[in-house]
Amino acid sequence: MSATSQQLIRTGLVGDGIQGSRSPALHEEEAAALGLQLTYVRFDLADPATPQRSLEEVLDYAQGAGFAGVNVTYPYKQQVIALLDELSPQAERLGAVNTVIFKDGRRTGHNTDWFGFRENFRRGLPEAPRERVAQLGAGGAGLAVGYALLEEGVGQLVVFDLDRARAQAFVETLGRLFGPERVAIGSDLAGALGAANGVVNCTPIGMTRHPGSPAPAELLTPRLWVADIVYVPFETELLRSARAAGCRTLDGGGMVVFQAAEAFRLFTGVTPDAERMRARFLDSIRDDLGTSATGDAA
Q1: Whose CA is closest to 58, among 34, 28, 80?
Q2: A single GO molecular function, which one (predicted)?
Q3: For residue range 23-63, what is the model confidence (pLDDT) as tens digits?
């Protein structure tokens, strides 16, 4: 496909509570800049007005309607696998999918989340110490983040999740890939944060529909760096508390931009300008806040 093609490319996002997602603007504005016609629609399964009432119905509809693919977000990144024909090598390793491509009557699952977090981490916290990191949340996005952290040289990753079986699956998956000594299930959050260089929130806590913070403010000290993959709202309660405590922080904006850039490439066959996408994303944040947003890390 060339950048001047006039063929309509239909894409979208399926998840729960996604009305605040910035993905439609990210994809549609970059497509327009490249001379492509692309639509990106939300399938919000928490919204009674959505005609499709299940993940399976969304996939059936999108594939039948000629969509190039859809992104998949919370809470369907693992559930979707049973509805696919095949997985990319990365998605198969992680056991989580955030991008589904429809081609030749088949559904292929990909994972671009790990790439998005890695790029955000590299740019936003390039010199961050990483001997020991605490991660909150072991779901689909959490697996991708854990993979990226270990790829980036984290010595030991300690994961916390209320679902013990999910945490165990996280440890087994990443332990097979990186060695069992580098990943463990945590039981004492205060002790883990006291010994860690950094903490990453991969839970939905902090989202507009799930307000609050996954870590008590009194556990955040200036020697910690703190990252959050939530980006709506842009400044979560966790990041606000971390900044007040003097921590270096990394918001979720960069992750969503860089994962979107890779998903865009999969949807269209065209490599987007990720820096242009990032600049437009930050402009939209500034417009919403009515103040200055300085980038991925503060």
Answers
A1: 80
A2: NADP binding
A3: 999 999 999 999 999 999 999 999 999 999 999 999 999 99
